[in-house]
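Design a sequence for this backbone.
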């Protein structure tokens, strides 16, 4: 626990923005793809966005044009810029990372609430 640490969640009004960050511990190496998933109570966890080590991105249809995933390999950090937020974006957002020849990792989650 604590290998991936998310931050940046909070309460925001509809139409507002938040920027999530996920930093890997300095002991974590060989990170490959990084991604953000989200989950609400009673629902399955869904993939929001992913980014490969070389920068290739993929987004869920529900967030295309509104969210931007990026990463800083030197800092072993992935970001999720969320703009034009909607109430349906409310969820716990989880950081995820695959590693070369090592098990995948999950963060503890950070709460995002979009409400007026």
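Sequence:
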């Amino acid at each position: 626990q604590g290998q991936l640490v998310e931050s940046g969640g909070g309460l925001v009004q509809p139409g507002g923005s938040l920027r999530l960050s996920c930093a890997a511990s300095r002991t974590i190496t060989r990170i490959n793809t990084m991604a953000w998933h989200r989950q609400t109570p009673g629902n399955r966890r869904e993939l929001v966005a992913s980014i490969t080590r070389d920068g290739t991105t993929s987004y869920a249809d529900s967030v295309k044009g509104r969210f931007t995933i990026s990463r800083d390999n030197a800092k072993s950090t992935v970001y999720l810029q969320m703009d034009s937020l909607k109430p349906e974006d409310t969820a716990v957002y989880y950081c995820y990372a695959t590693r070369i020849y090592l098990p995948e990792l999950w963060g503890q989650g950070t709460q995002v609430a979009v409400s007026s």
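The first strand starts at residue 4 and ends at 7.
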